[in-house]
Amino acid sequence: MPPKGKGGKGAKGGAASGEAADKKAQTPKGGNAVKVRHILCEKHGKVMEAMEKLKSGVRFSEVATQYSEDKARQGGDLGWMTRGSMVGPFQDAAFALPVSTMDKPVYTDPPVKTKFGYHIIMVEGRK
Hints:
Layout: H1 2-30, E1 33-41, H2 44-55, H3 60-67, E2 77-82, H4 88-96, E3 112-114, E4 117-126
Helix pairs in contact: 2-3
InterPro entries: PIN4 (IPR043323), PPIase_dom_sf (IPR046357), PPIase_PpiC (IPR000297)
Protein name: Peptidyl-prolyl cis-trans isomerase NIMA-interacting 4
Family: Belongs to the PpiC/parvulin rotamase family. PIN4 subfamily.
């Protein structure tokens, strides 16, 4: 009989572990946070100039420093951003992008429009 009692406790613990495992299983798919960089321009013409620079092979951080109206000194690095901490269109785009590097960036094309202006977004990490 004692094994059943242990099994009962184990089952309860197992359910809790199962819930934690479910949360962990969901994390790699969409993640709850992204390490993001962006280039923000108020004017569409300026963001398209920045896009052309990126397409010609200029590093994302350099283009951000030259063109972005936000966080330019950090090369557009916003750090880790969690779900719910970003405006809707920015968040949707950030979580849809694959993780990429400065050497081979994958960014939003066309730029994403928010109340702040036009963003070119790239994601460097996901957790």
